[in-house]
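User: structure tokens for this one?
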Amino acid sequence: MSQSNIEKRKPGRPLLYPDIEVTCKICGKGFFVKPYKNRLFCSRACTAINQHENREYPKQDLLTRMMSSIKVDPETGCWIWQKGLHKAGYAKVKIRDRAIRQDLGGHVVLYELMRGKVPEGLELDHLCRVRACVNPYHMEAVTHRVNMLRSPICPAAINARRTHCVNGHEFTQENTYLRALRSSTVGAKRGRMCITCRDARARARYRRKVG
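Assistant:
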């Protein structure tokens, strides 16, 4: 448990605002705060949990404001966001409410307003591959791995779609092995390697060694 400023203060020095102990609304842990601060959670992690579980938007006003900021592409049906974008190109929406995270993804907000909350542990994948699109019916809730493997530009997805190694050998069950790509064995990522190429490298090393 954290210490109060009463326990930390130097002897003989009076305190204008002694700390008070409160209980976190999420984990039940006790912590000290200033009496003039209205803190309900002990950490950022508990605050994030509360924001995800109790995320409610001013539905009608926000929906109206967002729908006035889109432009519909008649050919693709995409709802192109006309205002601020994140660096990655996704729509950015500011919610003027301290109980809700700021600078949310516009596609996430509109999806939750029109189709319901995104399930825990999932994220939204743009089926149309247009990052500025906020059409909730162009989104699918998937895991992070599935989202990455569907990407046309993600290096992991590009490697996963390869059927042959750089030397043209096919990745069959008999000609493929997995090798850790990190030095640590705990949680190490693994990559496909070609057995034919491995054997060729081993023979070349042996020939260099024996001369």
